[in-house]
Amino acid sequence: MLPYGRQSIDQSDVEAVVAALGSDWLTTGPRVAQFEADIEAVAGAPAVTVTNGTTALHTAYAAAGVTTGDEVVTTPMTFVATASAASLLGAKIVFADIEDETANIDPAAVEAAVTPRTKAIGAVDYAGHPADYDALRKVAEGVGAVLIGDAAHSIGSTVHGRPVGSLADLTTFSFFPTKNMTTAEGGAVASIRPDLLQRARTFRTIGVVREDLRHPDEGAWFYEVHEFGNNYRLPDVLCALGSSQLKRLAAFKARRQQLTARYDELLAGVPGLRLPIQREGVDPLRHLYPVRVLDGRRREVFERMRAAGIGVQVNYIPVYWHPVFTDLGYRRGMCPVAETFYAEQLSLPLFVDLSDADQDRVVETLHTILGS
């Protein structure tokens, strides 16, 4: 089965991990700080590493001060963690509909959804195309909310030369194997605000602080916990892999863009198929190549592609369709643009080591199915 996404590991990655295994530090060592510095160089903002993309979201919402009684406005067209991580802190999730063209959260819908109780606005860079953060920031500032970017799909993307990581108050990354780079499991939180970054760092380290102590005279061993946190520390072994992968990020981006351009060319004009767009000023590192299969044929195309050994995927089920949200009273129909998008969406295989021949096979199979 040709997968829809997979990691790219070479000998330099293996050597980096082996070197970490042979060092004195398997965790909480120098490779953590190095990887965080390497992320900053790409993201344009200082970063704190965490154990995965979901814990990155949990950490970001905690750093933003989200708690019981607050509202968080976010998109339904994402993996459930974008919403559930805020729910775990007691927030009420308010879903705002998406833009038809990009599948990113619609700033106009967000503006209609915010209230004085809105603590955070959570955007998602769907498929690697950054959300409209300039418009979202105006809405966030109007209600005093923290702007959070879920950039699980988009590390390495830029908007008018500004890197993802510098566009929101807090930005989260995922380094799962199917993403643009990997640490096997891992994630990070970047922030342009030092106060939020420090809160994120403390939260991911179980709430432990060694400065501004209430009892500073106990001794050099002493530490305190002022607020509860979690142990979300990413070990040196995985950070070593991450730093090695970041050295190849430019090459990853070039290949993904080449494959995206080939899809654009080879699928242009195919009846019953709508291709993704790229807005002016956006230079995306594509995580997904999401097409829309029209005329109610998405399930048929999905099943026939899978039967042909091509691992297409659907990204995503609208979050509020999950029983955990329907049991809270959320109902289908509340975000009609997102639901229409979901009914048509199909992700074609896209990963760095996808060969032109395998991509041609994907295109030919899709042509055959839609032409029948």
UniProtKB/TrEMBL annotation:
Obligatory cofactor(s): pyridoxal 5'-phosphate
Entry-annotated residues carrying N6-(pyridoxal phosphate)lysine: 179
One GO biological process term: polysaccharide biosynthetic process
Pfam family, one: DegT_DnrJ_EryC1
Catalytic residues identified in the record: 179
Taxonomy, superkingdom: Bacteria
Family: Belongs to the DegT/DnrJ/EryC1 family.
Protein name: dTDP-4-amino-4,6-dideoxygalactose transaminase
